[in-house]
UniProtKB/TrEMBL annotation:
One example of a Gene Ontology biological process annotation: vacuolar transport
Top-level taxon in the UniProt lineage: Eukaryota
Protein name in UniProt: Charged multivesicular body protein 2b
Region (Disordered): 1-31
UniProt lineage: Eukaryota, Metazoa, Ecdysozoa, Arthropoda, Hexapoda
């Protein structure tokens, strides 16, 4: 009973079956060729034997058989060559089918990607991003400029100058007290009196405060 629900073989399965059939046919021909070659050798030996015996009629009969046998062997060579050619064609066809299948899959995938990726929407989103990025840069620049103005107006420079002068005044007071208590005859390592060295420091401090 025929099974109407049997699954039809795929092209790849058909190609594999064809390849198996061709290999089997080639093996059968090789087996037939080997048998003919054995018969050929036997005929050659028989012809030589009859020739030695002087049996010309027998030699002619066997010679005709030998000619027919060799023709059949040549037919087998031709058939083997044809089978080899068909095998190569079958493999090439399988490769082409695989390539076609891959191209079909690629085309389908590209079609799916094109459906998902809307070029107009992508261009619109990129333009919106560009505008938002430019706006953010402008906002950041405005905030930075405003902060710079606020910092400039806060009087940090004057405050810093006041702190420096205060520190210098404290140093000056300490040095003044040191000058009052230090003996005038003491010398430092380079031969200068302590009082003279402190006077130089006071002069430098006064110079810093005036700048």
């Amino acid at each position: 009973m025929m099974n109407f629900f049997s699954k039809a073989p795929t092209v790849k399965e058909i190609q594999r079956q064809n390849d198996r059939d061709l290999r089997k046919a080639g093996r059968d021909l090789e087996r037939d060729k080997a048998n003919l070659e054995r018969e050929e050798k036997k005929l050659e030996m028989e012809i030589k034997k009859m020739a030695k015996e002087g049996n010309n009629d027998g030699c002619k009969i066997l010679a005709k058989q030998l000619v027919q046998l060799r023709k059949q062997k040549n037919r087998i060579y031709a058939a083997n060559s044809k089978i080899s050619s068909v095998q190569i064609h079958n493999k090439a066809m399988g490769a082409n089918i695989a390539i076609a299948g891959a191209m079909g899959t690629t085309a389908k995938t590209m079609g799916n990607i094109n459906k998902v990726m809307n070029p107009h929407q992508i261009a619109k989103d990129m333009e919106a991003f560009k505008q938002a990025n430019a706006k953010m840069d402008m906002t950041d620049e405005m905030i930075s400029d405003t902060l710079d103005d606020i910092m400039d107006e806060s009087g940090d420079e004057e405050e810093s100058a006041g702190i420096v002068n205060q520190v210098l005044d404290e140093i000056g007071i300490e040095i003044s007290g040191k000058m009052a208590d230090a003996p005038s005859v003491s010398r430092n390592k380079i031969g200068q009196s302590t009082t003279d060295a402190d006077k130089d420091i006071m002069a430098q401090l006064a110079k810093l405060k005036s700048t």
